[in-house]
Amino acid sequence: MTDFSDSATHPALSPDGRMLAFIRGSDPFITKGQLYVKMLPNGEPVRLTNDPDAKGFPAFSPDGSRIAYTHAPARTWDTWVVPVLGGVEPRPLLANASGLTWIGDRQVLFSELRQGIHMPVVTSTEGRGEQRDIYVPPHDVGMAHFSYLSPDREWVLLAEMDGGVWLPCRLVPFAGGSPVRPAGPPACRQAAWSPDGKWMYFIGSAGPGSHIWRQRFPDGPPEQLTSGATEEHGIAVTPDGRSLITASGLSHYSVWVHDSNGDHRISAEGSATVSLWLSSLSPFSQDGKTLYYLTTNASAPKAPPEQRIAPWELWAADLETGRRERLFPDFLMSSFDIARDGSTVAFAAWYAKAKGERLWIGSLDGRSPPRQLSSGVEEHDPIFGVGGELLFTARDGPSNFLYRMKPDGSDRRKALPDPIVFHMSISPDGTWVVARVPVGSEERNSVKALPLGGGRSVTICDFCQPGWSLDGRFFWIRIGGHVTSGQVTSEGEKTFAIPLRAGEIFPPLPEGGIRSEADVKALPGAQLVFDGRAAMGSNPSIYAYSQEIVQRNLFRVPLP
Predict the structure, then answer these.
(1) Which uninterrupted H or E stretch holds 518?
(2) 3-9 contacts: CB < 8 A, separation 24 or more?
(3) Does the structure show a pLDDT above 90 at 466?
(4) Which residues, 6 or more positions from 260, have their beta carbon under 8 angstroms from its beta carbon?
(5) CATH for 261-541?
(6) Where are the domains of the chain?
(7) Staple partner for 231: which of 210, 243, 394, 417, CB 3.0–4.6 Å?
C-alpha cells in the first residue's frame, strides 16, 4: 500500500474504504512524523501536517471529511483534527484525549489522563459533554490507550498497559460495569472488529515479535495469523471484512559507546539497549571498563504465554578488549542494577522454575547461582543503595510504593510513605531517590528527588530523566522525547551534563523545576552531551547510546 524507504505506520481507513490515512514516522506508538492520506488503490500520498510534534492514531470522522489524530508535543496528549482535503491548518478538537474514534456524528470514544499516568476510557460529545467512564484500570499506573466499539454498540475492545507492560486486551460492556473479559494475546497492543462483529482482530504477542491475531467473539481461543521475521503494528479492517491493512517491517537497535577515541559499536547481534523504560541508572561499571546492556535475539529462550516482558538478556562488554559475555542465560530480565563494588547484580526477571517475574541477586563472577529475593510478581526495578541495601518498586493496593530491603531479602519495608509512579535513579551518597510522583488530583505528574531520611522533596522537572555521573561530579538530564511502548523514545531527546561543586547533590534548579530546554541551558556550566538519548559514564566525554534502524510499509493482508 506504500513504498517508503523509511517508515509508514498507524493505518486508518475511511468509512467507505476509499481513503487510507497513516503517519510517516518510525515509532508504532507515538512518533515524530507527519500525517498523510491517499486515495485507494493507487493515489499519491498527500501530506496534511507540517510540524515537529509527535503524533499517532489517526481516525476518520463518520462522513470521511476529517481526520483526528493524537497530538503529543511533550507532556500533553490532545486530539487535533484536519480536513482530508488539506489546505487548512490542523486545529485542536479535544484536550487531554488520545486514541479518539467517532462512534456517532458528534459522539466520541477516547482515553484521558487523570492523576499521574492513570488513563481510563471514556465517551462524550465532541465538546466533552455527557461524559461517562467506560473502563477505569484498577491500578494507578494502568493506562487504557485504545478503544474500539463493536458494530452492535454493545461492547468495547480496549488495549491496556500496566506499569509499562502490555496486558491482554479487555472486552467491556459499552454501558459500563461488568463483566470485563480478557481478549486476544497475552501482550495486546491494538484491536479491531470485523464489520459483522463476529471476529475480533488484534496486534500483539505471546513472546518475541508483534503479529496479527484473531479471536471469534465473544470467547473463542486467540489464533495467531501472521509470523516471521517482520513485525506488524497497527490494524484497520476493510469495510467488506475480507482483508485488513497493517504496517509491517523491521526495527533494529544497536548499542554504541562514545569515548575519547570516538564512537564504537558494542552489540553484535540482536536488538540491544542500554536502558529500559525510564531508568536513569548508569550502565557502566564503577571503573568505567565494562558496559552492561540488554539484548534480544532469535536464540533467546522462549518465554511462556503468561510472560509479557521482552526476552531481554543481560550482556557485559569489556571496553578495553572488546570481549562480550552473556550473563545469567537462564533469565529474561526487565530491569537490573550493578552494585557499586562491581561484585553483584540485582535484577527483575522471568525464571521458568519460579513461574513468574521475581527479584534476584547474582554474583558477577559466576561462582554461585542467583538467589531469589522476592516471592511476589509485583516487585520490580531494583537499585542498590547504601551498604548494598536494595530499593525497588512494589504494589500496595492500587498504587506503587518505593520499598527497601537488605541484600539477603530480609527487613522488607516501605522506604517512603507516599505512592510513586516509578523511580529512576539514586544519588551517589544514597540519600536521595529520583522518582515520578503524582501531583495532587491533576492529570500530570512530576519528577522529584525524594529524601530517604525524611524532609522536603526537590522538584526537578515535569518531564525529564535525571541522574548522576558515576563519580558524582556531574548531574545529567535527558529532556524531550516521549513515552512509547515499554521505553522512552529518543526522538527529539537531548542529553545535558551540569557540573556539581564539591558537596552539591543538585545544580541550582529554577523554582518549580525545569520546564524547557532553555532552563537546562541556563544552569551554570551546562553542556550538550548528545543530541539524543544517552547514559553517562564517569564524565560527559564517556556515554552509551542506542541507534535504531527502521523500515516499515503498509500492506493489505487477506483474511482467512
Answers:
(1) helix 517-521
(2) 3/553, 4/553, 5/551, 6/550, 6/551, 7/33, 7/247, 7/249, 7/550, 7/551, 7/552, 7/553, 8/36, 8/247, 8/552, 8/553, 8/554, 9/233, 9/234, 9/247, 9/552, 9/554
(3) yes
(4) 541, 542
(5) 2.120.10.30
(6) 1-92, 261-541
(7) 210
